[in-house]
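Raw record, unedited: BTB domain-containing protein
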Amino acid sequence: ADVILETPDGDRFFIARAILIQASSVFETMFSLPQATSQADVSEGSNDLEFGGGLPVVKVTERSRTLDTLLRICYPIRSPQLENMDSTEIEQILQAALKYDMDGATFDIRNALNAPRFRDPMTALTVFIMAYRNGWKEDAQRAARDTLKEPLFMPYNPALDTIKASVYHKLLQYH
């Protein structure tokens, strides 16, 4: 590892910079910028970078579990079983993948959303919202069809806060 990613909850992930550069254009750009080379450089005010055990520390906004899953998708190891995760957790991982411009991770997440467990009406509404917000027309259409299996009057879904009322109204009309 040659860099540390630190989450708001204080967990530190010791990561190979090359993996982040390969997976994310955001990290590629970040690491191409001039960096402080020591704690002394940081102390002189030349950079806001922190050092932990001699390694640069990059503070991220994602929670540990979200970052852990996202990094497991990017590392050349067995990927996490996204299709077994809760749709809310998938949404958080997707937002992080989009934030860091991780096309491979976004592709894996999008594929996971096609798993049978995401086709039930309650989960399909969340998938519809994710797909619609990201411009995934075919996925949004499939998820809209999946919502037809039951009445759309179901318990409140926090994902509704992320779309316009007009989008939800169109889904109701489709129903």
